[in-house]
Amino acid sequence: MREIALHLLDIVQNSVTAGAAHVDIRFDLGDDGMLTMSVKDDGKGMSPELLERVRSPFVTTRTTRKVGLGIPLLQQNAMLSGGDVQLESTEGVGTLIQARFNTASIDCLPVGDLAETLATIIMGSPDKPEFSLTCTGPNGEASFSTEEVRAVLGDEVSLAEPEVVQWIRQSLQEEIEPILGGIMR
To answer: Which three-class secondary structure state does DSSP give residue 102?
Structure first.
C-alpha cells in the first residue's frame, strides 16, 4: 500500500465486516512529527487466539483466500518509518488498532487523500455503521460525524447521494488540510 489512507480503508472494511455499529477514526500529529492513526470499533472483536496470530500474513478470517496482508503490511510500513502498531480486541466488545508513523522518516508513507478515502468509506456503507473522524495536530483540531450529518439531512436523504458525498469530501478536505497539511501527499 502506498498511502496511509489505503491502510485506513482496509482496516475500516474489517470493522464493517465485523458488524460494528460505530467506527471511530483518529489521526493525531504530534509536535515531534509522530502521526498516530487509530481505528476503534464496537464490532464482534477477536478471540485471544486470533489476536495473537493476526500479525501473520497467513492468517485471515476470509474464506475467499488464505492470506491476510492488511495488518502485516500496516505493521511493516509503520515500522519502516520508526513507528509501531498496537492491537487490542475483546470478543463481543470490539477492536482498537493504533499505528504510529514517524513523518520525518524518508520511509514514511504519505497520508494520501484522507477526505476522498473517508467519503468512499461512507458511500460504501451509507446506512451503517456510524463513522466519526477526529484529526488533531499543532495547527488545531477537526472532527466529523455521520451521526451529525444524518441529524441535519433527516432519514429521507442517503449519505450515498452524489451531492452528499461531494459535500462530505469537500468539507473534510477543508477541515483536514490545515491540520495535517504537508504530510498528506
So the answer is: strand
The whole-angstrom separation of Cα 68 and Cα 13 is 13
Nearest to 25 by CA among 114, 125, 116: 114
> For 119-139, b where at least 16 C-beta lie within 10 A, e where not — what string?
bbbbbebeeebbbbbbbbbee
C-alpha cell at 163: 451531492
pTM above 0.85, yes or no: yes
Per run of 10 residues, the mean pLDDT along the chain (length 185 residues) is: 91 93 97 96 89 64 52 91 95 96 95 94 94 94 95 92 95 90 66
Domains within the chain, CATH numbers bracketed: 4-179 (3.30.565.10)
